[in-house]
Amino acid sequence: MLQQLACQIMSGLLQILSPDGRTVNGTQPQVSTVIRRYEAMIESRLYDRKASALQRQGRLATYASYAGQEACQIGAVAPLSRRDWLVASYRDAAAMRFFGYPWKNLLLTRIGDERGGCPPEGVNALPPSITVGGHMIHAVGIAWAEILQGGDAVALTMFGDGATSEGDFHEAMNFAGVYRTPTIFFCQNNGWAISMPRSRQTASPTIAQKAEAYGFGGVMVDGNDVLAVEAAVSEAVGRARSGQGPTLIEAITYRMNAHTTTDDPRRYRDNQEVEEWQKRDPLERVRLWLVDQGAWDEARQAEAERKATERIEAAVQEAEAIPPFTATEIFDAMYATPTGALLDQRRRAQVERP
Amino acid sequence: MLQQLACQIMSGLLQILSPDGRTVNGTQPQVSTVIRRYEAMIESRLYDRKASALQRQGRLATYASYAGQEACQIGAVAPLSRRDWLVASYRDAAAMRFFGYPWKNLLLTRIGDERGGCPPEGVNALPPSITVGGHMIHAVGIAWAEILQGGDAVALTMFGDGATSEGDFHEAMNFAGVYRTPTIFFCQNNGWAISMPRSRQTASPTIAQKAEAYGFGGVMVDGNDVLAVEAAVSEAVGRARSGQGPTLIEAITYRMNAHTTTDDPRRYRDNQEVEEWQKRDPLERVRLWLVDQGAWDEARQAEAERKATERIEAAVQEAEAIPPFTATEIFDAMYATPTGALLDQRRRAQVERP
Amino acid sequence: MTEVNLAQAINSALDRALEDPRVVLLGEDIGQTGGVFRVTDGLMEKYGAERVIDTPVAESGIVGAAFGMAIAGLLPIVEMQFMGFSYPAYDQIISHVARIRHRSRHRFTAPMVIRIPYGAGIGASEHHSESTEAIYAHIPGLKVVVCSTPDNAYGLLSAALEDPDPVIFLEPIRLYRAARGALPEDGDPTPIGSARLERKGSDLSLISYGAMMRETTAAADRLEAEGVSVEVIDLQSLVPIDADCLVASARKTGRVVVIHEAPSTGGFGGEVAARIQEQALFYLRAPVLRVTGWDVVVPLRQAEHHYLPSVERILSAAYTVLED
Amino acid sequence: MTEVNLAQAINSALDRALEDPRVVLLGEDIGQTGGVFRVTDGLMEKYGAERVIDTPVAESGIVGAAFGMAIAGLLPIVEMQFMGFSYPAYDQIISHVARIRHRSRHRFTAPMVIRIPYGAGIGASEHHSESTEAIYAHIPGLKVVVCSTPDNAYGLLSAALEDPDPVIFLEPIRLYRAARGALPEDGDPTPIGSARLERKGSDLSLISYGAMMRETTAAADRLEAEGVSVEVIDLQSLVPIDADCLVASARKTGRVVVIHEAPSTGGFGGEVAARIQEQALFYLRAPVLRVTGWDVVVPLRQAEHHYLPSVERILSAAYTVLED
Ligand SMILES: Cc1ncc(C[n+]2csc(CCOP(=O)(O)OP(=O)(O)O)c2C)c(N)n1
Ligand SMILES: Cc1ncc(C[n+]2csc(CCOP(=O)(O)OP(=O)(O)O)c2C)c(N)n1
Ligand SMILES: [Mg+2]
Ligand SMILES: [Mg+2]
After folding, report:
1. Same domain, yes or no: C148 and C244
2. Nearest to B334 among D57, D296, D303 (CB)
3. Is ipTM > 0.95 here?
């Protein structure tokens, strides 16, 4: 399989499942695995809808929808094991959830509560990065530490096409190349960075090819094809784990909704473009294939949606049940032990705002 | 000639004059031009020696020798016209001088006097950059302004192999690519960034190829061959001037001396490497060729050295004759008009330090 | 006299600025969408994509490129999308923008305006609520101004554009829509370096700037209703600072409270307090108190209100100094 | 008891630190050459290139990678080659290093030490003489310490390494060779957050830190010779600050001069003066004066001496406050 993969990578965009639900190049995916991926994508899609709705109701602050990018999100983390690390961004809630970061935490962050950034022990995922670009080098440092400590875990970092313009992208890629750290750079090229189209973000024909400037390989993959994404990441993880260093993966995808709930995409893009991408929906092609295999039907769809909705609703309830910080609790996590100035201020906060 | 050039560039390192003073590929350079370049290189070499000596005598603060890189320095700026811009680094005194920035100013900066940073009107060269990497984007902005203002000047920026690791290199290259600014990125890959060898600075096989990540072209040139450097830059300038955008040029060269006068290269590199490069001296091959053409002899050499020495000595005298700033003059160039706080401080400086 | 909000006032000032062909605007999403706060709305349509420039996501590059443009004779106005995203550009600002005049003894200069939306209060994500003006105010070579009303926004931005030196222009996010008022009648600049005496008084001086002017004037109203004569000063300009105004007020009232939303330690309030005691110590009848954000990262939406200085906290400090 | 200089003291502390296998050093030219000031001399040979790591020229990358290492359980000590080259890393420091504990409510932490050589006095090139501690002291989540003697360099660095939070460790370049003394006998850490009472006195308090301790103690010597009883405080730790020590001293002497080499406006001296007047106003018999570098870029070698606070300038301020 690897051989075959490599050859497709060479010839351009890696694709396993076409938009009309047929496998390309005679690959035969395992039905049970595909079902698991599809169920995760269903849950992700539903969470995204729920979160968007909550935001409209004023129950979340802002929210960044990943609808259309579910294949990237699930495919990118599927090959990771528990000991690996995920260093992702504000738009990667589905990936983080699939990696074990609870919906509850992801919601909390969006509700506006720092406790969202505290996943359960054992979940090796940093809180989602809000700054663009700064977090990729963290995945390099983590992976590097892994080498130095003799482990074989890898670190995968997720970022957008816009993030590749930041100087920090360059420094992260360069360090990864020089020290051959087991880092996977996973770029979701969703065509836009807020209002800036990919074509004006950088003049290089592809993002994948940027890896060559750092002495390692880059691949392009159909980001709306969960199997292709998973295959590309699997290979990169394998390389990283066996000491062959980093890989850059460019997943071509599309952000179907606004940048965040405060954005109005009609100001900068044609609805026609959105409609075009609608036809390449990442869920639909998996569903078609599964139906074709006789492994899926409407009943199973309904059941999957019901279960997912239950889990999401439970998470919403849990998250919303948490009382906001009191005036004094905001002082408690700046240092391991609050400084004298903080203790003093905490006291004043209590007195002055009774 | 351009055609021929391009083909050599494609095949790797561009070279016109081999270390033993023979032209490669049947190029026939113009003798009078070569003499002018050679004389500039002689003067540069002598200045470098003088400045190093002055530093040892405590008459300069630190000094960064460019010995071995004279072909880069002269070749890089030779194709520029007066209306173009030069944005260079601490090691580029010879290039700056050849562009019109007086030795006097370059000395002043090294003596430790800000007036070094004030070249005569009409010399479009920023004071040498001391921070590594931050200045390249300035050449992008300048070149961009040129487009917006309808001019056809170009901006050339000089930097080292180490500088390519900074995030600012990436952002500068990316902006130049996106806006197709008439910027020439001239990298002197002298093998070392203080104690860091080029091979550990980045894992990409060449620096030139990094340009591809930004959608434009990069070329490699023998940096110890002044004619090759000039040819490569000429072509890049031509492209930039005619609206074809930026070029990255990697000139392969070597720093023969210490990083600066406070550095001890024996700590990190073999003398053997230095000796190897001695054989590729950028001045010697030009001299050999000129002698071969019957256009140079010992008398002309002596005469050129005498004249150069005179000019350098005059500059040293001029620079050293300038009295250091008084206690109040240091306040006079922070703003167009000093702020109240500065006026107040200037008064105190006079009173408290009589 | 039409009323506009703060964002519209800045938009008007930018619009007028663009009549000068040297002016270019650069920033992330400022063109096509008119900026995340719509401050540059309509300007790209009016002046073209060559002068109102949408840039890649690269703050250091934006400032560095603008610096080059300024060197070459243009007059760039840069937008940092949020103050929390200005840090990648900090090196360009401190090492180059602020220093080129000094480095070249006036030979090269970089007059430009760096607009930075700042401050908390809209329940935004992390990094979107910063108030780190102190890190800019400490850099020799920069001027730092903060607007608080449509009037001074327009006036200070006009002055910043006329200034031969680089100006950091801070815009309180919380007031973009909330602060409403008229534009200056004559369109005249507001001199950089002069504070605005919001109101005169004799018992107590409240000194603030930017978004906190709201809470400050509200506190002043309350105090006046209680019979305290309050002087309210809007600094407007952190660098250069209007020391005369501050010192005169402190000498007159003998009681001073400084208010800002940035954390206390190392915040600009320390500079104000230090200057006042330097020049008015023996007039002070109480310590100069600072009412500031706490020394913590601005909390997210659920607890943000615990962070921002409230009218109550200002009042509490006022009562304390009035007691002495 | 062998005498060492400041650079050697730091080298010893690093050497001892490296005995802990979690410790790694990262920086430009720290390995093969032992650092431009030879502070890390010999450490790569002793501990290997995997633990004493020469990096590419990329400050943001260095700090960001070290941050990742810290998250993953290592204990990185980063060297910024000069303070003037730390700005490209400012975003990583403020946005990530200082905040990950807060962002994750203690779940992830980044204990690490960022060593920064700082200050003027050796006639260096531009950007090599910076003293911008104020921009670090204003960031919640960081601790900021400044050494001034071999003893407290060793002690503070040891404490910084034991600290569960990130510490900015400032090293006065001017004292690397000039400050000589013994290492702490027991190798014990110097508590972060406590000032050092360099000498006790009753007429006047001189408060300083880092390289300026030299001029400060010299001025104190002169004053003592003239019969003035001078208290000298070496802050050591800017964040957290030892407010009790400062306030007690101010209350005792009633006359305070704060000395640092950074520019005055927005410098840390403002914080010190503000705090003292807040807590000791009615004990003050004269304004707290600041003797600082001027609000200019540090001049190059020929005029640098005009910039740095001199013993005379400290004396002049001392006489002023003693007169009141
Ligand atoms: C350092 C920094 N600069 C600017 C921003 C504001 N911002 C948030 S998202 C975004 C666009 C990012 O685009 P991309 O990387 O393609 O990711 P996408 O949002 O498309 O997933 C920008 C400019 C930021 N968060 N951080
Ligand atoms: C931002 C920044 N970081 C670090 C330094 C310190 N420094 C001065 S020169 C240098 C090496 C630069 O190497 P290279 O770019 O190859 O240029 P070369 O000195 O070889 O000409 C370093 C790290 C600096 N000047 N600026
Ligand atoms: Mg995108
Ligand atoms: Mg080099």
Report:
1. no
2. D296
3. yes
